[in-house]
Amino acid sequence: MCREEAAELSSLKPQLDELGIPLYAVVKEDVGTEVKNFRPYFQGEVFLDEKRRFYGPRERKLGLLAFLRVGVWMNGVRAFRNGFVGNVLGEGFVLGGVFVIGQRQQGILLEHREIEFGDKVNIEDVLQAVRKMPQELQSLEKK
């Protein structure tokens, strides 16, 4: 389901480029060709965080009981119907998220943490947060 969200975020790439805002992904592992297989869905730079420092001092996980949640199944069916098939290798229980991080003292402009697998960020919220970034950052990134 992360591939579906990666593709949706990548659909913003032309607008982000126009604003001079980079698009990054942080992944926790690269089992087999996992990151290589992810790249076609994500049009930004991908960073591997094997030590999981970006995930914070307390990783947020859902255990096997997550597969009893109706929302998880609905999200999985939605992703499958949209042509996204994930992998079943690796750890698989850490919840993801999307952050829009501003310059210097701006801090986090948008924080979306998955509540359950496939709980995607609202793309309009991402654009709204990006537009809060100061123009000087946008022009610096263009250089």
From TrEMBL:
Keyword Cytoplasm set for record: yes
Top-rank taxon, per record: Eukaryota
One Pfam family recorded for the sequence: AhpC-TSA_2
InterPro entries hit by this protein: PXL2A/B/C
Key words, A-Z: Antioxidant, Cytoplasm, Redox-active center
Keyword Cytoplasm attributed: yes
Assigned GO CC terms: cytoplasm
Annotated GO MF terms: antioxidant activity
Predominant localisation class: cytoplasm
Locations listed in the record: Cytoplasm
Family in the record: Belongs to the peroxiredoxin-like PRXL2 family. PRXL2A subfamily.
Protein's name according to its UniProt entry: Peroxiredoxin-like 2A
Source organism phylogeny: Eukaryota, Metazoa, Chordata, Craniata, Vertebrata
